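hey so i finally got around to running the thing on that chain from the lab meeting. sorry it took forever, my laptop kept dying and i had to restart like 3 times. anyway pasting the input first so we r on the same page abt which one it is
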Amino acid sequence: MSEHAELWLVRHGPTEWSENGRHTSVTDLPLLPHGEELARGLAPRLTGTTFAQVLTSPRRRARRTAELAGFAHAEVDDDLVEWAYGDYEGITTPQIRETVPGWTVWTGGCPGGERPDQVGARLDRVVDRARRASGATLVFAHGHSLRVLTARWLGLPVEDGRLFRLDTATVSVLGYERESPVVLRWNS
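ok and heres what got predicted. didnt touch it at all, straight out
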């Protein structure tokens, strides 16, 4: 582990479902036209940093964001896919709560999808990969998966990902202060 490691997080640009709060994991939606514009706007914010590795979720929305931000060569890493919502794919939290009052992805998981510990296990592999890199790692992925990745970077349980609101087409940076993993920049 390198105390000089940094993990740069980019959430993909807006899609139709991200704009209206529908849980989107395996449904491979394209970016909206203004999502493509926002993704292009990420390029100047990422220029000037040398990345030891650039990784992306295999989903079209993440790969396209990487491409438009200037990282068409990003390596696909299946561990970066969004939380598998199973039966809740394509529906909103208020719709789920009509039959499961108080439900949250953080504590309830998703029937037919992933449990919090399963999501945490695969994102722990991304944390390990970033910490072994000889320099900064840049990842393009999704709202819930990046929030879990952040919690795991900080040594927190998966459910503490709920504490990190993350908007589309944003850049966040995780790193170290001395030997402690910290948030250097968030949701910018």
